[in-house]
Amino acid sequence: MAAGIYIGSTSGYSGKNMVVMGIGLRLQKEGFDVGYMKPVGAVPEERDGVLGDQDAFFVQDILGQDAPPEFVSPVVVTQDFKVRAFSGQFDDLMPSIKTGYEQLSKDKDAMIVAGSGSMYSGRYCNIDGMRVAKALGLPIIVIDRLDKELNYDYLVVLKDVLGDSLAGVILNDIPSSFMNEVDGLIKPFLERNGIKVLGVIPKDPLMGAIKVSDLAERLGGRVISCASKSEKVVENFLIGTMQVENFMTHFRKNKNSAVIVGGDRSDVQLVALEGNCPCLVLTGNLYPNDIILTRSEVLNIPIVVVRDDTYTVAKKMEAILSRHKLRDVIKIRQGAQLVSSSIDFDYIKECMGLEDK
Description:
- This protein is an alpha/beta fold.
- The chain folds into two domains: 3-206 and 325-352, P-loop containing nucleotide triphosphate hydrolases (Rossmann fold, 3-Layer(aba) Sandwich); 210-323, Udp-n-acetylmuramoylalanyl-d-glutamate--2,6- Diaminopimelate Ligase, Chain: A, domain 1, CATH 3.40.1390.20.
- 43% of the residues lie in helices and 21% in strands.
- The chain has 15 helices and 17 strands.
- It has a six-stranded parallel beta sheet, with helices on both faces. A five-stranded mixed beta sheet has the order 12-17-16-15-14, with helices on both faces.
- Helix 10 packs parallel to helix 11.
- The relative contact order is 0.14.
- It holds the Pfam family AAA_26.
- Homohexamer.
- This is DRTGG domain-containing protein.
- InterPro entries: DRTGG (IPR010766), P-loop_NTPase (IPR027417), Phos_Acetyltrans/Butyryltrans (IPR050500), Ser_kin/Pase_Hpr-like_N_sf (IPR028979).
């Protein structure tokens, strides 16, 4: 049977797909025949009348695979599944996961198995990451993405529970301002507790970026000007509620930031347009005046109008930028490159029992 590894995380939206694709593409480049599985699908999607997981379909496309969804994601969490699971009306799901893994790994050199949510997600029906990795006999890599702080306690508890099954951890999305603390304090602390840090992936604004057209859709708004430029990318956002002078100071420091501003604040809107922001997001369902519309067209900067107030839009924007999935080719390339240059591949291959080709 193929050598394998399980990629889990301390929470959802930690970068599992990015790491899975990064490792998979690197192993393929080195000549290995790589298989992929996501045993528990969290976002149901049908393809050719067969139910699978949206992320799993996407990762398979990137890795050039088309294995049957019933093997790749034998468990797909639909609303009906949840109702039955919470009522205790489910059979043991592990045999179908084991069967899927056996089928997929038959002719492969290496298998990458992706978790769903955190290592404990799925406990309500006994298919959490801890159980799945153990049932498949796989070493585990856990990703911890910085969100205000790292989950170092969680990682140490996982080490206590998993012992040698925990191959190591990857710290993801670390800004340059936090690198000294990671290198000087957190890495030595984890390694003193027997946890190997397999890599530290730096924060890259592009990885959280989103196209203007996708942003408008996610905010429930519409592009009213310069729609042909809605492929532009937004990496961050600024709120234009302050005085124009203060706003200009912040704006100069934050390039590629969408500007969220009330539809009636034409002063701030004009400054943002002239400063070449990627897009304007006007709140309160208020349309801009003709001067703003004309400048938008001349400068090729799209304007999105949304119904919500500025505060609500800012909260939504924060969630969107922190959880936006990798779907653009440019981001996948960048993500694979980040993974490739940041993690200890030789050690991962050693854990999997892979010999160099």
